[in-house]
Amino acid sequence: MLFFLRSISLEHFRLHLLRTSLTVLGIALGITVFVGINLVNKSTLASFYQMINNVAGRAQVEVSRGRSGFEEVVLDDVLDTEGVGKAAPIVRSSAYLENAPEDTLILLGVDTLADKEFRTFTASGESAQEDLDVLQFLNSPDSVLITEPLAERHGFKVDDSLEIITGAGLKTLTIRAILAEEGAAKVFGGNLLIMDVFSAQDVLERTGRFDQIDIILAEGADREAVIHDLRAKLGDGFTVDSPGSRSGQVENMLKSFQQILTIMSLLSLFVGMFLIYNTFSMAVAQRRREIGILRALGVSARQVATMFIVEAGFLGLLGSVIGTLAGYALARKLTEIVAETISTAYFNLSIDQIAMAPQDLGVVIALGMVTSILSAVAPARHAARVSPLEAMSPQAMETAARAKYWKVFGVGVALFVVQFVLLFLTDGASNPLIGGGASMLGFLALTLLSPILIVLVGEFFSPILKKIFSVEGKLGADNLTRSPGRTSVTVSALMIGIALAVSVKGTMLSFQSSVLEWLHQSVTADMVIRSSAALPGPDAVDMPESLGDEIVAKVDGVADVNRFRMVNQSYGNTQVVLYSVQMPEYRKYSPGIWIEGEADAVYDAVTAKDAVYVSENFMNRFNVHAGDEIELATPTGPKKFMVAGVRVDYMSDQGVIGMDRATFKTHWQDNGVDSYDVFLKSGYEVAPVRESISQLFGKDYRLVLQTNAEYRVEVQSAIEQSFRITFVMEAIAIIIAVIGIINTLMVSILDRTREIGMLRAIGFTGEQVRKLVVSEAGMMGVIAGGFGVVAGIGFTMVITQIVLREVVGWTTPFVFPGQSAALGFGLAVLVSIFAGFYPAKKASETNIIQALEYE
Amino acid sequence: MSNMIEVVNVTKTYGSGAKGVQALKGVNVEARKGEIICIVGPSGSGKSTLLHLMGGLDTPTSGQVIIDGQDTKNMSDRNLTLLRRRRLGFVFQFFNLLPTMTVEENIALPLFLEKVDKAKISKKVDELTALVGLEHRKHHKPEELSGGQQQRVAIARALSNDPALLLADEPTGNLDSKTGAEILRLLRETVEKYQQTIVLVTHDNKVAEWGDRIVTVKDGLIEEIREARREAFVPA
Predict the structure, then answer these.
(1) DSSP structure class, residue B45
(2) What does A535-567 look like in DSSP terms, one character per residue?
(3) Dist CA A200 CA A206 (whole Å)
(4) Does A470 touch chain B (CB under 8 A)?
(5) pTM (predicted TM-score)
(6) Which one, A108, A177, A481, A633, has least CB within 10 Å?
(7) What is the CB neighbour count within 10 angstroms for residue A688?
(8) Nearest-CA distance A391 → chain B (Å)
(9) pLDDT tens digit string along A262-292?
(10) How many other CB atoms are there within 10 angstroms of residue A181's CB atom?
């Protein structure tokens, strides 16, 4: 076998270097995406755990209570508990730099004495001194330590003053030391400020309150027992857990996001498989005579098949190695996009490590080889069936057996039915394995439909192309129908790429339009004010409650303000979003879209008593309906709330609970404000009001004032942001498809060498031969684009009508993606024509005499 | 009679240096209007190279090939193509019909290239299908025809642009002898009807004797030029 590989296979690789390289590139790209996405998914979680571990340091148990924190005396209770060895209080808040409001910083107040048992902070650069405890620098109330990356980004030096915006307004601190990028100073991409815990209380105007207590157990103490005792002692409002316990919830939260990415990366690999299948089918067709000779000389059918399998494995190995390296590079780029997406949609995260375990490397390379080999099995079996007699007879042309293609079409339709059953009649849409399998089936079905479609479309376009491009156009269309089997695989690959692009874009548009409709019904304020560049969320910087009253009192033209507060709330096995607004004001302006319950009754209920409304996806996810009761863990203990209604709300893909601000303040003991909705008196313009608010309060709180329209644009771009990563994958799928087209056309030209020679002999110019090949390529694009767009629209409907409901619990009305359909079609035709250029050039340079003698 | 084609002191070398192979080593031959010249010789003798040069498919290394008064030596690829398209016709051993096109379309292919108007094409196709006896097969695809019928379509295609010179490379090589005889009869008929010149390459001496003159090529040189017996080719 080694002899065959060396003297036959390698020789063919060398002879068809372009085709071989393109195939390897195709495998490599498929693997690149797969590796890239997997690395990103793993790195995301790893970075999150790392972040938890770095911040937690040596802490074994953490005590906290919502966003509002708790009284200092709790520390004494904790220290008095048996089994608690050491305890350190923490004050924690978001803040940002006065002159760089785009980055959210985490301000951590730590106990300068107790904390060194928990976390290690090391001074860097000029402030570094042997054996010096860097926390000693926090010796005055305005002292702050910043991290090396932050200092580098903004050019800060020791003793510089640092102006930050906090929930209590603008504060000026002095940088006392710069922390080396290690341990706790490594998290949040370095967006971390360290202060003395009591100074932090002062700065944040939260005297006497802590947000968290970290605990190291006494020697021999049992963690579970200590947690149990602490819970009993502190009461239900407190969260007492090990630092890692939140990770499960985060994994759940990111699950669907990561699943979608994984399925898409598998699709790239799938498109890559098409390319390998195609390459080997062609190789077998071209080498039939050689196979016949080998068979005549006594090589067994099994040996012939093995030869092709080994070739596939070899190319797979090569492609996997290249793909793994490229995937690593891709992951670096993708992590930036993913980190941004997660930060926008879920929580602040910076992904700063990408690591591939050696065993993963083995798995990926094995995957690449297995993928290649699987794709080559059918062509290899085909090769094994070549009889020795065929060595003697001239090449048989693939004849268009229409009946056969109708049969294949039938199988394709059957596969669609299976896909339909999987998605509709099982829980396929919410199960990644079945859902992923179903999408592969759908694409496979498309491939099987395509040979007959190619024949029909080719026949339809042949006379039209003749009219437009004369005889060379017609020949281009005809050539396509001559080997629909070969063409279909190529066309399908591009079709999948286009379908993917159209469906993702279509889903995004449908989703965007639903969200905008929801915003139209819910965010009716003339202006939204917040104290952070980030959209409102649990990482937003607080604004004081009194600010609202001041705005109403001092700014001419303001009719009403509404205070919005949002927290992450544990529910079931995930974290949902809980927000509060002042219902009496809210109902005046926000009709909402109600699925269960009637607006007035719901507003009455949530204003009057301990009632809430939930979002549609909360209802679907947890099977909670109007009239049900849900129990929520609050800082004042578990409380039962009546669900008064269900409404459309896209604030969180995990589920949303809405309640009156009064109810929230009572149970959560939190009177912070994340954003103010401002409603104007009639007859007032937004611009002058915005100007006066900005002048009166803007400096202290560094307020971000947005008009309703601006806010919507921002939400819209946040949605686009979360779809950005998918575009990278679509692009790669399309590139792989383009490689397929180049490959197919090159072989198609080779097959028709004599014919091209004849055409040149009877008077086709080189230009006309080029036109012929380019029309053939263009036709592939027309077919792939046409059916890809149709399939893409179909998939959009499946995703918006079924998958989104099953996975996230949202119903989104289908919006016809007209523009992306047109773009997708145009793109397919353009990339195909582009892919045709090189083969066309090659064809036009055919040596007529050699071509006429070619067999 | 004036010369349709003249080959003057032509050499053709493939490759260069020590590896170069001289296929033609100084050849002189001409064909008159309305004449059928048959080139014979063993394989590797250079007869195909000579045909390719005479058909404007290739240009000589030295010497002149003058087709219909035009020297091919310094012609651009495009001009050579146009010369082939407008003045020459080709008939190949393996017919080389386009499988996706009907008989009618295959015959009209050179006319499509010249953008001849539809009515004229239709008239010409009718005339040629009648000439080759395939008027009832106009809408058939090549795969539905026998080898002899396919070669007749190829001849009709070669005649569609009213060529001055028709080049045939082993036109009977892939046919049984009875069908081959029919094809040769058809070619003779066309010469008489359209007054073209035919240059035909064959390895079959019996086929060669059917022409007007026989040019024997051996080792890249012309060994002999003589009058043929002009006897009808009789199937063995």
Answers:
(1) S
(2) PSSTTSPPB-THHHHHHHHHSTTEEEEEEEEEE
(3) 8
(4) yes
(5) 0.76
(6) A633
(7) 12
(8) 19
(9) 777 777 778 778 878 877 887 887 787 778 7
(10) 17
Q: What is the DSSP string of A783-802?
A: HHHHHHHHHHHHHHHHIIII
CA distance A292 to A383: 9
Distances (CA, A) of A146 to A25, A50, A153, A580: 46, 20, 11, 34
Cβ–Cβ contact B116 with A under 8 A? no
Contact B231, B63 (CB under 8 A): no
Query: Is the CB of residue A843 less than 8 Å from the CB of residue A751?
Result: no
Nearest-10 crossing angle of helices A818-844, A766-798 = 150
The residue length of chain B stands at: 236
Residues of A in contact with B92 (CB under 8 A): 758, 852
Q: Count the neighbouring beta carbons within 10 Å of the beta carbon of residue A310.
A: 18
Distance CA A547, CA A558 (A): 13
Which three-class secondary structure state does DSSP give residue A828?
Answer: helix
| Residues on chain A touching B100 (C-beta within 8 angstroms) | 475, 478-479, 481-482
> Do A761 and B55 make contact, defined as CB atoms within 8 angstroms?
yes
Q: How far is CA A274 from the centre of its chain?
A: 25
The residue that leads in pLDDT, B231 or A217, is: A217
Looking at A190-348, list the stretches that DSSP marks H as alpha helix, in order from N- to C-terminal side: 197-204, 223-234, 247-286, 288-296, 301-345
Residue A601, chain B, CB below 8 Å: the answer is no
Q: How far apart are CA A721 and CA A257, in angstroms?
A: 13
Which of the given ranges, A121-130, A478-487, A673-682, has the highest pLDDT on average? Answer: A673-682
Run of H or E including B166 = strand B165-169
Closest residue on chain B to A762 (Cα)? B85
Does residue B79 sit at the A interface (CB-CB below 8 Å)?
A: no
Dump pLDDT digits (tens) for B123-172.
999 999 998 889 899 999 888 898 889 988 999 999 998 899 999 988 88
> Which residues are CB-neighbours of B191 under 8 A, at least 6 positions away?
B34, B36, B197, B198
Q: How far is A455 from chain B (nearest CA, A)?
A: 12
Asked if A761 has any chain B CB less than 8 Å from its own CB, the reply is yes
CB-CB under 8 Å, B161 with A768:
no
Contacts of A10 (CB under 8 A, 6+ apart): none
Q: Does A764 sit within 8 Å of B113, measured CB to CB? A: yes
C-alpha A304/C-alpha A195 separation (Å) is: 73
How many Cβ pairs within 8 Å bridge chains A and B?
Answer: 67
- The count of C-alpha atoms lying within 13 angstroms of the C-alpha of B60, restricted to the half-sphere facing its C-beta, is 27
Distance between CA atoms of residues A299 and A292, nearest Å: 9
Q: In Å, how far is A31's CA from the nearest CA of chain B?
A: 39
How far apart CA A368 and CA A793 sit, in angstroms, is 31
Closest CA to A30 of A330, A256, A260, A338: A330
Tell how many helices (H) and how many strands (E) occur in chain A. Answer: 27, 21
When pLDDT is cut at 50, 70 and 90, the band that residue A396 belongs to is very low
- Give the separation between CA A714 and CA A724, rounded to whole angstroms: 15
Residue B167: helix, strand or coil by DSSP?
Answer: strand
For B158, the closest chain A residue by CA position comes to: A762
Phi then psi dihedrals of residue B197, to 5 deg: -105, 140
Angle at alpha carbon of residue A24, lines to A23 and A27, rounded to 5°: 90
> Of the candidates A783, A834, A773, A279, which has an alpha carbon nearest to the alpha carbon of residue A484?
A783
Alpha-carbon distance of B37 to B15, in angstroms, equals 29
Closest CA to A744 of A396, A282, A273: A282
Say if strands B88-91 and B165-169 run parallel, antiparallel, or are unpaired: parallel
In angstroms, the CA B236 to CA B231 distance is 14
